[in-house]
Amino acid sequence: MKKSFLFINALILILTACHSKSDRQYFESANEKAKAKNFSEAVKEYDYLASEFPHSDYTCKGLLEAGKIYHSILIPASTKADTMKSFITAIGYYKRIMNDFNDKPEAESALFMMGFIQANEINQLDSARMSYMTFLKKYPGSPMASSVNLELNNLGKTPDEILQATERKPY
Which of 112, 23, 30, 102 is closest to 65 using CA atoms? Predict the structure, then answer.
């Protein structure tokens, strides 16, 4: 009896393992859904990838893609509060990359995007300043460092103020 129970459990384990998708397959499936503009389903698949393969490089890439979807508001927001939730959700994905995949190349983009959303979308200037300063400390040689410095120099300024300051500078 005990042997047959163990045999059946082993058989079930083998059969379910043979039918499950790999991390790469979930990532590619989510990307296909995003390309087809089925963003809600793409995000669900990226989330599932992250829950099933929490340490996978594909999870890191998927979290970045999910953050981009929410930042770009590709899942329709019906109210200003929903739009704000989208931005906060995007930051959540980027923070997860910073926490779980700090050594991956995507972490650099995630940190920049966190600062950008904080500064330009949700007007959290102190948080944006901290994100940008952290960026410059962690990635001083990054090609995005000049953009970060520009963002820092213009935090809290209106587009008109930025244009006026640009017009006053000699060429």
Answer: 30
Instruction: Quickly tell me which residue has 């809600």 as its tokens.
Output: 40
- Tokens encoding 110: 């995630």
pLDDT at 167: 79
CA 21, chain centre distance (Å):
22
What is the residue-averaged pLDDT of the chain? 89
169 φ/ψ angles, rounded to the nearest 5 degrees? -75, 135
Taking the C-alpha atoms of residue 28 and residue 36, their distance in angstroms, rounded to an integer, is 12
How sure is the predictor about 4, in pLDDT bands with cuts at 50, 70 and 90? low
Asked whether 69 and 39 are in contact (CB, 8 A), the reply is: yes
DSSP the chain: -HHHHHHHHHHHHHHHHHHSPPHHHHHHHHHHHHHTT-HHHHHHHHHHHHHH-TT-HHHHHHHHHHHHHHHTT-S--SSHHHHHHHHHHHHHHHHHHHHH-TTSHHHHHHHHHHHHHHHHTS--HHHHHHHHHHHHHH-TT-TTHHHHHHHHHTTT--HHHHHHHHHHS--
C-alpha distances out from residue 95 to 1, 108, 137, 141, 170, Å: 50, 11, 17, 21, 39
Q: What is the pTM of this model?
A: 0.84
